[in-house]
Write a structure and sequence with these properties.
Blueprint: E1 3-5, E2 10-13, H1 21-26, E3 31-34, H2 47-56, E4 60-63, H3 76-83, E5 90-93, H4 98-106, H5 113-122
Parallel strand pairs: 2-5, 3-4, 3-5
Antiparallel strand pairs: 1-2
Helix pairs in contact: 4-5
Length: 133
């Protein structure tokens, strides 16, 4: 498991395993966001499996699956509320972390966007999904 802290409240990760979830909770995360559509790759745990693992570990769970064809998804305001909830640190994951960080960028207010882009670039992510605003 490779977790990248974006801000003190938001981190992103590549694909997680179900047995990573207790360690995520132990590390202090309170919300787990799955940005990967079910069945995207063979052997990938389903959203229902992650929801059960999150609940067993005391984490809130949000399923917000996107890909290049439907980015940024159907309810960006709901995702922004998740990232900004203040209920504790949020860990969002996808195949590589790229979709998750692009979604975080897409939820940033205009006044915060340039600094957020700079932070994401410094972490080495491809930001082509969110583009420039």
């Amino acid at each position: 498991m490779r977790i990248i802290e974006v801000t003190p409240q938001v981190a992103v990760s590549e694909q997680l395993n179900l047995d990573d979830v207790p360690a995520i909770a132990a590390a202090g995360y309170r919300v787990l966001v799955n940005n990967r559509p079910d069945g995207e790759a063979p052997g990938q745990p389903s959203s229902a499996e992650f929801a059960a693992a999150a609940a067993a570990s005391g984490l809130d769970y949000v399923y917000y699956p996107v890909n290049g064809m439907n980015f940024p998804g159907p309810d960006l305001a709901r995702l922004a509320a998740t990232f900004n909830s203040g209920s504790g640190p949020v860990l969002a994951f996808c195949r590589s972390g790229t979709r998750s960080i692009n979604l975080w960028l897409a939820t940033r207010p205009a006044e915060d966007f340039p600094q957020a882009v700079q932070r994401a670039r410094s972490l080495g992510y491809d930001l082509s999904m969110v583009g420039q605003r």
